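Batch manifest line 200
LIGAND: adenosine monophosphate
JOB: complex structure
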Amino acid sequence: MRLILLGPPGAGKGTQARRLVAKYGIVELSTGEALRAAVQAGTAIGRQAQEIIAGGNLVPDEMVVGIVEQRIAQPDARKGFVLDGFPRTVPQAVELDRMLQAKGLALDSVIELRVDEVALLKRIEGRIAEMKARGEPLREDDSPQVLHNRLKTYREQTAPLIDYYRQRGVLRTVNGMASIADVAAEIDGALEVPARAGSP
Ligand code: AMP
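JOB STATUS: finished
ARTIFACT:
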């Protein structure tokens, strides 16, 4: 099972990705997590990425393409993977197609978590305030100001992927504003129907 979860920050991609990993025995790859690990480790990529991430902008395509290419070539990714936060631009999607084609593989589904942006912003800002009140550590890019930019970046650079995958017949859209359990059930339902055969 090879899947992509597509949706703006805070739409619940990570939560759903972790459940899909447990259900299908596939691996999860979050490019955001991989980049944050690189920042923590102080690698060359991490040093380049740090400021870009802190500002809520996208790192250069080739930086994340390399991370994904290496990860999906690992033996434990043979059963499949769920990508969370990649691709985020059309050139990244083109690169992913190229990588998969070279291995004779294809995507099974791209699941779009559709959310209402205004409600989403309120939800995330509420979560940030609660975490602060509890004294929990926040991500550097989890401030309301940076969040606005991350959403703008999503709208401008990532949302075009919805059409990209719709045209390829692999897009499935679920209501990301529902409860975690309801979103999970909708995803499971969408994955039961082969996307290539039944995509609207
Ligand atoms: P995320 O954890 O997915 O919200 O990602 C956090 C940050 O990492 C993003 O705001 C970007 O700065 C960077 N990032 C993660 N994935 C990508 C990607 N596929 N392309 C470019 N930048 C990315």
